[in-house]
Amino acid sequence: MKNGTDSFVFFGHWPFAGSFGLNTDILATNLINLTVVIGVLIVFGKGVLSDLLDNRKQRILNTIQNSEELSERAIEQLEKARSRLRNVEKEANQFRLNGYLEIEREKMTLIQLTYKTFQQLENDKNETIQLEQQRAINQVRQRVFQQALEGALATLTKSFNKELHLRTINANIGMLRAIKEIRN
């Protein structure tokens, strides 16, 4: 039985440039096929992956910009609420004798409502950013996996024919028989 590492150690049996032959050494051809597949994935998948990431980055930046606009609106509402609060405080000084406690309750309600609104908008902004990031990651993973699978299937269908399949099966049967004879 031929040692599997002979093809790596002894280069003398390799054909010269210009000749054509079928390399039946499965270990050497698998390394070549893997090298070709990885090279093709790097060369062709790099641009697609870069475009996907750039598009996703732009969407995330747009989402962040929209969230910041929402935040600015919330700050404007907060400023309006503060202005209203100042007006309420002026009125409170005028009507202190009649309803000081009622005015204070309204002031606290306005502050709490504005704070809750601002907090909700901030939470919504953070949730949106996290969801968009997770969605981008999942889409990139799915696309890379799909491209790798398509490349592997294409390589297999191109390089694996019936004759090679039968030879592989016969070689494996021969190895199993040899193992069986050794055990007996």
From TrEMBL:
One of its GO terms (cellular component) is chloroplast thylakoid membrane. It is found in: Membrane; Plastid, Chloroplast thylakoid membrane. It comes from the Eukaryota. Pfam families: ATP-synt_B. GO terms for molecular function: proton-transporting ATP synthase activity, rotational mechanism. The keyword Transcription regulation does not apply. The keyword Ion transport applies. Residues 61-98 form a coiled coil. CDD domains: ATP-synt_Fo_b. It is a single-pass membrane protein. InterPro entries: ATP_synth_b/b'su_bac/chlpt. The chain crosses the membrane at residues 26-49. Keywords: ATP synthesis, CF(0), Chloroplast, Coiled coil, Hydrogen ion transport, Ion transport, Membrane, Plastid, Thylakoid, Transmembrane, Transmembrane helix, Transport. In plastids the F-type ATPase is also known as CF(1)CF(0). Component of the F(0) channel, it forms part of the peripheral stalk, linking F(1) to F(0). Belongs to the ATPase B chain family. F-type ATPases have 2 components, F(1) - the catalytic core - and F(0) - the membrane proton channel. F(1) has five subunits: alpha(3), beta(3), gamma(1), delta(1), epsilon(1). F(0) has four main subunits: a(1), b(1), b'(1) and c(10-14). The alpha and beta chains form an alternating ring which encloses part of the gamma chain. F(1) is attached to F(0) by a central stalk formed by the gamma and epsilon chains, while a peripheral stalk is formed by the delta, b and b' chains. This is ATP synthase subunit b, chloroplastic. It comes from Pharnaceum aurantium. The gene is atpF.
